[in-house]
Specification:
Low-confidence stretches of chain A: none
Number of strands of chain A: 8
Shape of chain A: globular
Number of helices of chain A: 2
Oligomer: homodimer
Strand content of chain A: 35-45%
Largest sheet of chain A: 8 strands, mixed
Radius of gyration of chain A: 15 Å
Distance between the termini of chain A: 34 Å
Helix content of chain A: 10-25%
């Protein structure tokens, strides 16, 4: 008898510093070499916000203050739910953690849209910039139900 | 070597019909005999909203349209994250599913506050009624980090 498994939570954030946002280039599979917002699997004993901040610390060695809820993405084909927050970088200090090749601050126009690791990251970033341009902080739902083309 | 486990998602909703809300009295442990909003573990392959609607169908044999996001509760001591939505009951038809002893529609004043099964349910219901009274539909975060007294 096989029991179903429950979806895993992936927590992340979009850290901003003086208008630019922090992105990481992945040093691990899947999608090694592609770009992502800081995000990873939530662990037991932490809140949604603490998980998002911890992932940013681990992947970008950067300290953030987590802000408003940005995106809730049901990644049904992968059995994951991605929860993304807005965040403020507290100091302009960051560096590649063990799971990142490089980390940098990017203007909207300089985001490597064609080299993003995951569709949920693209959804998150597009909603982030659209809301910022409109002066609002909404939250957004999406379902991603097929593996991306590689 | 022991791997950490990841938190499980519990999805639920507050179904409303003509101003009253649907509650279930639990037929299973934990908290057998106590009252709860329809909620349960999310399964792979469903979105947040479909999971919330399915749980309402299973526990209250009731069909709902899921609405806005209401509560995100990190239940850190239990390794769970509870996500609750507002919902509309599509027809005034409901009955106890296999995990419920009884199901009913309640006015705010008649909610059995002292017989609620879980603190996250109480948090969810209190925010629901406060927002409704204020004419808004916000979402609310909470951390619950200790087992309830029984």
């Amino acid at each position: 008898m096989i029991h179903y498994q429950n979806p895993k939570l992936v927590l992340g954030c979009v850290p901003e510093w003086e208008g630019r946002i922090l992105l990481c280039r992945r040093a691990i599979e899947p999608r090694l070499g592609f770009w992502t917002v800081p995000a990873g699997f939530m662990e037991n004993g932490e809140t949604l916000q603490r998980a998002a901040a911890r992932e940013c610390q681990e992947e970008a060695l950067a300290t953030v203050e987590i802000g408003s809820l940005l995106a809730l993405v049901s990644v049904t084909h992968a059995g994951q739910v991605h929860v993304m927050f807005r965040a403020k970088l507290l100091r302009p200090e960051f560096a590649a953690g063990p799971e990142s090749l490089e980390v940098g601050l990017y203007e909207e126009a300089d985001v490597p849209w064609n080299e993003l690791a995951f569709p949920s990251g693209e959804f998150t970033l597009r909603r982030y910039f659209a809301d910022r341009a409109a002066g609002r902080e909404d939250h957004h739902f999406a379902e991603l139900n097929r593996p991306m083309k590689i």
